[in-house]
Amino acid sequence: MSWTPPKATGDTPVIGYRVTVSDGRTIEVSGRDVLVGQPSAKNMFRVVPGLRPDTAYTFSIAAVTATGTGPAAEVSVTTPSA
Fold first, then answer.
1. In Å, how far are 20, 23, 32, 55 from 62, measured between CA atoms?
2. Which of these, 21, 23, 39, 50, is most buried using a 10 Å CB contact count?
3. Phi and psi of 16, rounded to 5°?
4. pTM, whole model, 2 decimals?
5. Nearest 5 degrees, angle CA 18-CA 29-CA 27?
6. DSSP state of 37
7. Domain carrying residue 20
8. pLDDT digit of tens for each residue in the chain (82 aa)?
9. H helices of the chain, where?
10. How many C-beta atoms surround the C-beta of residue 14 within 10 A?
11. Nearest-angstrom CA–CA distance, 18 and 34
């Protein structure tokens, strides 16, 4: 899965991302992964293990700052057949 970090975050830098998978998992992205994307806004990648073939998933990605979690963007995909 990949996403493009926001180009502007206001006065508070992004310190992480919260990825919620429709199967109930939440993946926290922080540390070096977040710093690499700023300020150039290059695509960020995260491997999501355990996805089943030929299954529809929705991923919600929200930026996390020191003041809280922002609104989430959603992406729906279906994994390819095995």
1. 9, 17, 17, 23
2. 21
3. 180, 175
4. 0.77
5. 55
6. H
7. 2-78
8. 777 776 666 778 888 889 999 999 999 888 766 655 454 556 777 778 899 999 999 999 998 888 888 889 898 999 999 7
9. 32-37
10. 19
11. 11
Q: Which of 80, 62, 76 is nearest to 16 (CA)?
A: 62
Q: Which residues contact 8 (CB under 8 A, 6 or more apart)?
A: none
Helix, strand, coil share of the chain (percent; to 5): 5, 45, 50
Q: Are 1 and 59 in contact (CB under 8 A)?
A: yes
Residue 9's domain is classified under what CATH number?
2.60.40.10
Which tokens in the block code for residue 13? 């830098």
Q: For the chain, what is the domain count? A: 1
**What pLDDT does residue 4 have?**
73
Contact 7, 65 (CB under 8 A): no
From 44, 43, 41, 30, select the one nearest 8 (Cα to Cα): 41
